[in-house]
Every structure is written in C-alpha cells, then in structure tokens.
Amino acid sequence: MTTASTPKGERRRQALIEAGAQLLAEGGFDAIRHRAVAERAGLPLASTTYYFDSLDELITASVEHHARIELARGWAQLRAMTDPGPQTLIEMVLDQLLGDEPESEAVLLRYERLVATGRRPYLRPLMQILSGEMYDLLAEMFAKGGLPVDRERLEQIVHLVDGAVLNAIIEIHSDPRATARRMLKATLQL
C-alpha cells in the first residue's frame, strides 16, 4: 500500500504537485521548497515528505505536471484550429515554445527553467520523453498548417527560435516573441 493509495491521499499528493508546478512557473526551481509547496497547497509541511521521498521527486512530478498542462493546451489549440494559415501556425508554434504569456518576463522565466533543467540530471529521462511529445505536437501543427516538416527540419526550427529568443532576452528593451516570430517567418519564407 502506497502513501497516496487512498482517495484523500491522492488528492493531497495531487495538490502538492499542482502547487509545485505553480511555484515552478512563477519562480523557477528555486521556488520549489518543501515549506513553499505545502503552504501553497494548504497542507502541513510534513505532507511533502510523506508523499514524496525527496525534493527531487516532488520537483520531477511538478515539472511533468506543468509540461503536461502545456502539451494538453497545445493539442487543444490544434484541435480547435479553424484557420490553418501561416500566421495562425506561427502563433501556435510560438505558444508551444515560448508559452502563451506575451510578457518578456514570462519568456525569461521559461528559458531560465529550461536551462536549469540541464543542471538536474534526475530530470533528463523525463525531459527526453516530454521533448519527444512536444516535437510530435509541433509536427502535427506544421502538417495541419500545410507545411509538413521532418524531424530534422523541426529541430532546426526549434533551435532557431531558441537562439532568437535567447539573443532577444539579452538585449535591452527587446520583445523575444516578436524576434522569434520574425525569424520564424523568414525561415519558413512566409
């Protein structure tokens, strides 16, 4: 019998995961601490160690939860796509790669999170799975948008967007999304 095998245990564990995912989105990995997660979830501090063997396990569950929400939002956006034109496609791709919050601070937090993931080897297996799922979603977006691409081309596009965003982030008064949009349009010749 696991610690979260009861309905109440599952609800509590899920509340901790959701709280961790919120903290991750708001402040990166440093924001996920036992006390902060418990407070956000409205649960006793001891619940974080009762339902998770380590902080790494809680972080992993939080990262996966956050990523699955983003992937689900992307798939829903794809299903709802009525105008598969190039502008719609570009915005959907940017939503998936940069998030749907247009503020530069939100994009910066997202990229800080991605870079920080590389310093956490325990996350690598999960990130490989999530990355593959994101590439599958992006491939479907391009196909529905009338611009089917193979995996190699898709990787080039993602790397181009990432490079454009990182360069825009380091510039003063820049708009990373606008920069990525401009580069994506030029690369796709739209």
Task: Give the key terms.
mainly alpha, 2 domains, Arc Repressor Mutant, subunit A, 190 residues
Proportion of residues in β-strands: under 5%
> Can you tell me the number of structural domains?
2
The assigned structural class equals mainly alpha
- The share of residues in helices is over 70%
Tally of strands = 0
Low-confidence stretches: none
| Elements, N to C (H/E) | HHHHHHHHH
The best one-word shape is: elongated
Mean pLDDT: 90
Determine the N-to-C terminus distance.
Answer: 56 Å
Number of helices: 9
For the largest beta-sheet, the strand count, sense and barrel status come to: none
From the alpha-carbon coordinates, what is the Rg to the nearest angstrom?
18 Å
Question: How would you summarize what this structure contains?
Answer:
By secondary structure, this protein is mostly helical. It has helices at 7-27, 34-41, 46-51, 55-80, 86-98, 104-117, 124-144, 151-170, 176-188.
Can you tell me about this structure?
With 190 residues, the chain is mainly alpha-helical. It has 2 domains: 1-62, Arc Repressor Mutant, subunit A, CATH 1.10.10; 81-190, no CATH class. The chain is built from 9 helices and no strands. It is elongated. The mean pLDDT is 90.
